Each structure stands twice: as C-alpha cells, then as structure tokens.
Amino acid sequence: MARTARMAQIEALLAEDPNDAFLRYGLAMEHSSAGDDAECVTVLRDLIARTAAEPYVPAFLQCGQALARLDRTEEACAVLAQGVDVARKAGDTHAQGEMQGLLSSLE
User: Does 1 have pLDDT greater than 80?
Assistant: First the structure.
C-alpha cells in the first residue's frame, strides 16, 4: 500500500520519540484506514512489545480485529486473550468486554 502524507508525518515524529505509544498506535490506525491490515498488525505488535511494562490496552483489540480481517483467527484469538487479561489487570472493563466479545465470536 502507498504511504500517506499522514503516515510520513507520524513516522517523522516517531523518529524523534520512538517509544511514543500514542503515535505508534496512530500509525497503525493509518495503515488500517489505508487497507493495509498486515502492516497495521506489524506496527501494533511492535507497540505491544514496546509497552509490555505498561500495556497500551487498545492495541490488543485493534490487533485482534486486524488479524481477524486477515483470516488469521488463531493469532487473533491469542492476541485478544492476552488483551482481555491485560485489560482486566488495568481495570479497563470496557476494553475487556469488547475483546472478550470479539474473542467469543471467533472461537
């Protein structure tokens, strides 16, 4: 897929602060909006790894959704199960419920 001007802008900001979770998440969403779910997953997996000490909860849901769109159901279920646990530990019941619902629909 073609890189958009917005992707280039986010990537330039990430060059200055590679650990900015919000920017990395935004880059993943740009790839998703452009129809590039594979790159979206790559960016989200990187985000999940970078924020392991303080997980960025929305990354798990978006990664699970992108994997499901790619028909990578087993991977989607694994990410979502991990996300349910992370959301529960973070006290984010809304995200936990969303991920559990998607996980249940895929199993």
Answer: no
| Interatomic CA distance for residues 6 and 29, integer angstroms | 11
CA atoms within 13 A on the CB side of 100: 11
Report d(CA 65, CA 44) in Å as an integer. 11
User: Could you tell me the domains of the chain?
Assistant: 5-106 (1.25.40.10)
Per-residue pLDDT, averaged over 84-106, amounts to 94
What rounded mean pLDDT belongs to the chain?
A: 93
How far is Cα of residue 101 from the mean position of the Cα atoms in its chain?
Answer: 17
- Amino acid identity of residue 57, one-letter, is V
Q: Please state whether the predicted TM-score (pTM) of the whole model is above 0.85.
A: yes
